[in-house]
Amino acid sequence: MKLLLPGFLLLAAVGMAHAQSEVFLCVDQNGVKEYKNTGDTKGCKRVSLPPLTVTSPSAGKSSGAGAGGAASSKPATATPPDFPKVDNGTQKARDNDRRQILQDELKNEQQRLANLKKDYNDGTPERQGNEHNYAKYQERVASMKEDISRSEKNIDALNRELSNLK
What we know:
3 strands; flat; 166 residues
């Protein structure tokens, strides 16, 4: 048990050192920028970043109300004042457009699924001329089965999106 404690402390120290490592901005010959934790290549410069501050979620809840002061009425994720606003008519038109697009996609996906199932023929599709060996035929059948499964999942996802619209 005593041997585990020094090992744990060493791991914790390594984790802290890694969290506070240096950051380098590297630019290659084509001008592509990349951030790295090592500056061992040509064109890398150390970047000075502000320290991270980590607060616990419960720290914001207890401030103000416990000391007799009123809690702030402003929500933690307030919308910025310069955030663009959309009137109700425009939003309703956008929602209707979205609904129509989703319904069109659903219709197309349902048609695609019907065609895939027709070609699949309950797991025994017709062999094609280039499928002289049975392995190629089995690969195509497996691919068709995957396509059908994917199409069914797409239909489920589109139905979920449509049901989420108000």
